[in-house]
């Protein structure tokens, strides 16, 4: 049987996520993000297409590095305004049966004891379909908003995150026995006290003593997603993640990232097949190649490369407004997103990066390319990336919504199914069982 790919939709509880400026397109309906029924309809489309999950990004703070303020981000809706992604999930779960939900939460500003309960609650309400994309944050604006002068140093954020993960997994996996809840009306005992125990954690960054407040949920631990690509981030992912999200401008670049992750997994006593690696994917599809190219050109007319530059400035910590269009970008040191910053250590087609080259690359409002073509041509590319870059599937980045998801479901998925590389029905079980064919988080074994 051919290897079957995994597929998540990639979205955010805001107007402008990754392909900046496309909210201006006359067919785009992302302004409806404030309505629960809009999200429920999207979830229904994804379940009709047998998507494994909806991956909801999030950010705490605003993109205020470009020109030293948030004006460009606010004017261009560059991930602001943005609402809480967790609150969308129960409504979407009520209108679907199989679709999973991978939700981003920044652990730097959340108490582990309370976040553990929130995810247990969502796991109960979704009947075992919740995942957590673990991030540590990279914006000084977030740190200031939360009462700090600046964010922690990059590697120190991950050191603290290691402690955090130890705490929440102890709460989820060790505090309650599976048979602790008796619900015995006759004896008047709901929970057997002998089968519930507090955790007692004392570390450098956290001290937590107490029982987990929720009874065991279907998965106990949510499926753990992670997107760390820096050396320290990759080590964190190899220690904790079950699904790892990677981005890259080419198959070769993604292949190298996957190889680095594989080496980190081995160093942690894990195998490549113990995780699922998903690459970012943007698709513009048409019935013919010409139609697809015309649609791509149409999208580009509404996209905002300037919005992409605003986003990328905060990702790297580099204020691109200080550079002339053709001035080589030489700045290196930052405590922001280290993998994004590392892009400037590599030349662009043999030449240093400049603002002009960045803007030229951001035709769709972001630095990542797009698969543009017929369903067959798009499927060819996806299949090629699976084989040559060794990815297990994709996070589908939205362009103009909802048409980008509807067209992918109606046009591309049948082509993938005809090749035997995409499922024709959902398997039963929890989100983890569907993605990883196992019931419990790997550390619990």
TrEMBL record:
Residues 74-389 form the Luciferase-like domain. This is N5,N10-methylene tetrahydromethanopterin reductase. FMN binds at residues 58, 104, 154, 158, 229-230. GO terms for molecular function: monooxygenase activity; oxidoreductase activity, acting on paired donors, with incorporation or reduction of molecular oxygen. Pfam families: Bac_luciferase. InterPro entries: Diverse_substr_monoxygenases, Luciferase-like_dom, Luciferase-like_sf, NTA_MOA. Belongs to the NtaA/SnaA/DszA monooxygenase family. Keywords: Flavoprotein, FMN, Monooxygenase, Oxidoreductase. It comes from the Bacteria.
């Amino acid at each position: 049987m051919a290897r079957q790919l995994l597929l998540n939709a990639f979205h955010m509880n805001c107007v402008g996520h990754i392909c900046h400026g496309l909210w201006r397109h006359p067919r785009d309906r992302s302004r409806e993000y404030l309505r629960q029924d809009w999200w429920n309809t999207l979830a229904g489309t994804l379940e009709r297409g047998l998507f494994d999950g909806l991956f909801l990004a999030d950010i705490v703070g605003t993109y205020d590095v470009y020109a030293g303020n948030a004006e460009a981000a606010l004017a261009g809706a560059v991930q602001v305004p943005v609402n809480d992604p967790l609150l969308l999930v129960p409504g979407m779960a009520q209108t679907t049966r199989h679709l999973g939900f991978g939700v981003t939460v920044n652990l730097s500003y959340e108490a582990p004891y309370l976040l553990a309960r929130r995810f247990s609650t969502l796991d109960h309400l979704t009947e075992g379909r919740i995942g957590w994309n673990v991030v540590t944050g990279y914006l000084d604006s977030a740190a200031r908003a939360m009462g700090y002068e600046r964010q922690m140093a990059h590697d120190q954020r991950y050191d603290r995150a290691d402690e955090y993960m130890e705490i929440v997994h102890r709460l989820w996996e060790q505090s309650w026995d599976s048979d602790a809840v008796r619900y015995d009306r006759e004896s008047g005992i709901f929970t057997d006290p002998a089968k519930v125990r507090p955790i007692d954690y004392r570390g450098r960054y956290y001290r937590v003593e107490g029982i987990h407040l929720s009874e065991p949920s279907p998965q106990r631990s949510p499926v753990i997603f992670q997107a760390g690509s820096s050396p320290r981030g990759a080590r964190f992912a190899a220690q904790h993640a079950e699904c790892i999200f990677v981005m890259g401008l080419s198959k070769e670049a993604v292949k190298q990232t996957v190889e680095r992750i594989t080496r980190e997994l081995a160093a942690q006593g894990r195998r490549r097949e113990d995780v699922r690696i998903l690459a970012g994917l943007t698709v513009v599809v048409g019935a013919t190649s010409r139609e697809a190219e015309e649609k791509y050109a149409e999208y580009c007319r509404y996209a905002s490369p300037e919005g992409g530059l605003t986003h990328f400035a905060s990702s790297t910590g580099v204020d691109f407004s200080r550079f002339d269009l053709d001035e080589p970008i030489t700045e290196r040191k930052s405590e922001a997103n280290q993998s994004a910053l590392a892009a400037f250590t590599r030349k662009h087609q043999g030449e240093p990066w400049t603002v002009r080259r960045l803007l030229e690359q951001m035709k769709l409002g972001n630095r990542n390319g797009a698969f543009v073509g017929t369903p067959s041509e798009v499927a060819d590319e996806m299949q090629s990336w699976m084989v040559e870059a060794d990815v297990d599937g994709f996070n589908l980045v939205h362009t103009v919504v909802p048409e980008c998801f509807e067209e992918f479901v109606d046009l591309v998925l049948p082509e993938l199914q005809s090749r035997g590389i995409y499922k024709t029905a959902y398997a039963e079980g929890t989100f983890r069982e569907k993605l990883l064919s196992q019931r419990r988080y790997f550390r619990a074994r």
